[in-house]
User: Fold this.
Amino acid sequence: MTIKKRRGCRGLLVAVAALLMLSILPVSALAAEPADATVNIPVYKQVVGDTPKTDEAYTFSLNAVDGAPMPDGSVNGTKTVQITGEGNTAFGPISYTELGEYHYTISETKGSNQRYDYDKTVYSANVQVTWKDRVGGEMIATMYLAKEDGIYKQEKALFTNRYTMPTPVSVDPPVQKVVNGSPAVAGTFTFRFVSDSSAAPMPDGSSGNMKTFSRVGPGQAEAGTITFTEPGTYGYTISEVNGGIPGYTYDKTVYTMTVKVTEENGQLQQSTQYQKADGTAASAMSFTNTFKSNSIFPQTGDTTNLTLWIVLLTVSVVVLIAVVIWKKKRTDKNSH
Assistant:
């Protein structure tokens, strides 16, 4: 009995000692190493207003407060990501190895596109790392969002940019027709308007990068209004088509019209210059035709109507010969 009692007392002492050891060991020693908690902070972009011609690339920053853990690719406590057009992305997984509360700010980097009103909102992200189910078990990270100047929770870090198209600018090319002489009937004069590039805007009624337009008699010829919606330098040439009207000489001048469109503070402005082919500056594009009523042959330099004039000349010569022969016969008859 004595031996059994001693053994029982010894077992009790071992059990008490084991309990004491367990009570002083840290929680991490009671279970397997807990898994790290992670969070991947998302950011969203939307664009309102006019429809952009091309999608813009927007940049967003995640900034750590007081040395909070950061995702891979961060530099000095900052991680940047981009979204092209509308959509969303995330800054990348952030791992937490210790319980606690961690703070971040989320903001958009102001771009240089003058047509955008960039979102100046700054979001505060609060990440709380706690035990998931039991002490010493798995950790969990929970994120809460609020605007930096507010206290209400936000569903997501949403940035909204407004895009505004600038008011278009326009040019109405001044084409002037001058006629020297006194034709009995006003002639119809045709002009050719051609752009240097397929990207250059053209007036209504154009076919590709060319438009032809006409004017009856002297005065202002209407090429049509050209509307510009984007900055750039646009070049055009304007010339007169040789119409071959008898009695007229045609103006062979070729003008170059250069339109420079600039944008400042979301507003378009244009400046237009005119030059002759030899580089001489001009205030407008003027074409002068001269009409000579006593012309026997067309003074146009164009041979398209030469056949008509040859026929008329031949008929005139035949008539003249007939008249001479008739007069000669009449003279011979009277002499007898």
User: Anything to note?
Assistant: The helical segments are 2-24, 306-335.
